[in-house]
Amino acid sequence: MADHTRVEPAAPTAASRGPHGTRAVARALERSAAVLRDRLRAGELGSLPVVLVLAVVWIVFQSLNANFLSPRNLSNLSVDIVGTGLIAVGIVFVLVLGELDLSVGSVSGLAAAVFAVLNVNHGVPEWLALITGVLAGTVAGTVQGYSVARTRVPAFVVTLAGLLTWNGAMLCVLGTSGTVNLDENGLLAKLTSSYFTAPGAAYGLAALGTGLVLLSSCLDRRRRKAAGMRHRSLRGIAFRASGPAVIAFTAAYVLNRFQGLPLALLIFLVVVAGLDVLLRRTRYGRQVYALGGGVEAARRASLSVTRVQTAVLALSGTMAAVGGLFLASRITSVSQGSDSGVLLLNAVTAAVIGGTSLFGGRGTTWSAVLGMLVIQSIASGMALTDTPTAVQLVITGGVLFAAVVIDSLSRRSQEAHGRA
After folding, report:
1. If you write DSSP's letter for every residue of 326-349 in order, what string do you get?
2. Rounded to an integer, what distance in angstroms lies between the CA atom of residue 260 and that of residue 279?
3. What is the pTM of this model?
4. What confidence score (pLDDT) does residue 37 get?
5. CA–CA distance, 254 with 258 (Å, rounded to integer)
6. Which of 225, 133, 232, 117 is nearest to 171 (CA)?
7. Domain covering 49-197+259-415: architecture
């Protein structure tokens, strides 16, 4: 496979200062602009479209209501994205595989129902009920994944049947009461109501994240250099890391102005980072991308298609269960509406808006975070401006349609340049 990584132009040094310093800086900027133009023409848009959309959403709602970008609202926003965001992260793996899981809403509702009934109605300790709820999602996903792999029936058909099956199971578990209220001071409720109030917690997380980005980039540079491949300069790595660093420390500053670092957000970021390493840095992740590029080609390459497909759907079910438990934690109750169809649409939409391709073979777990930020920002802005829910759905649908169109055009452009 051809390597398309380009060497970033080195930043001008002290030697370039003087009569010709301005010209050297201009040439460096021109080279950087040329690299960016080449990538855009080749369809390598990255996260640029979703970042622009998010910026527009924030500017519009801030102009309509000055409280939108307040520390309180942004802190609440960071917690609100966690439940559905965790489900969307599982969806990313399925989409990269070139499939679609329609059962995640029902699986999340089933997991929450299992936890609530065991803990509240039968007195099972919360930690054990939590594990059981998550395992329920894992089992559901494994059954669906194995069925897809062995029967070769498209995943959306199998998971559509799962949507109905797990929804019925949730209703059976909840019984006639229909709603179970959770302990507001319990372990599950504290997942979304606890904060690290010490300023050092948020800033420490920002510093750790920046350090990990630099370390990962340096290790990648060393591997490429040792293999004789093109690699980025150290100045280029530092420049690329400056963007995430500014975002991370700004977010830490804003969170500390309210109640500090939310526990839910910390868990979310740790899970996303861990799964990103799994997807992009391990043999298993490479197999997932390979299957997304073509199942038959993967079979001929002696990849275990059954094992990988089963594992991906099992992971999707597990993340749906975890996300469902966080959603239940946020409202401290579980009801028959916990498997709302809007939940499924939001999870899939978040993954696609964030940049995960519907055609398979492209996407990262961080795309779910960006997409979820867009969706929840729209919901939050609508709530602050008293806009009807119907309008929110129309706007979210429009953003999803735009994301799909951009994805399709990007793929065509990459194919034209031999990069798809």
Report:
1. HHHHHHTEEETTTT-HHHHHHHHH
2. 30
3. 0.86
4. 56
5. 7
6. 117
7. Orthogonal Bundle (1.10)
Q: What is the pLDDT of residue 293?
A: 80
Give Cα 228 distance to the centre of its chain. Answer: 33
Structure tokens at 366: 């961080």
Percent of the chain with pLDDT over 90: 51
Compute the distance between CA of residue 87 and CA of residue 93 in angstroms, rounded to an integer: 11
Closest C-alpha to 240, from 10, 3, 44: 10
Pairing of strands 333-335, 261-262: unpaired
pLDDT tens-digit map of 313-357 = 999 999 999 999 999 999 999 988 776 678 888 899 899 888 888
- Contact, 45 vs 406, CB < 8 A? yes
Q: How many residues in the chain?
A: 420
Q: Give, for 125, the enclosing helix (H) or strand (E).
A: none
CB 181 within 8 A of CB 350: no
Which DSSP helix (H) or strand (E) runs through 46? none
Residue 244, CA atoms < 13 Å, CB-side half-sphere: 17
Sign of CA dihedral 260, 265, 267, 272: negative
Q: What angle do CA 201, 206, 212 make, to 5 degrees?
A: 120
On whether the CB atoms of residues 90 and 318 are closer than 8 A, the answer is yes
Angle at which helix 305-331 crosses helix 71-96, to 10 degrees, equals: 160
In this structure, which amino acid lies at residue 50?
V
Residue 388 banded pLDDT, cuts 50, 70, 90: confident
* Cα–Cα distance measured from residue 229 to residue 207, given in angstroms and rounded to the nearest whole number: 30
Q: Tell me if 259 sits within 8 A of 195, measured CB to CB.
A: yes
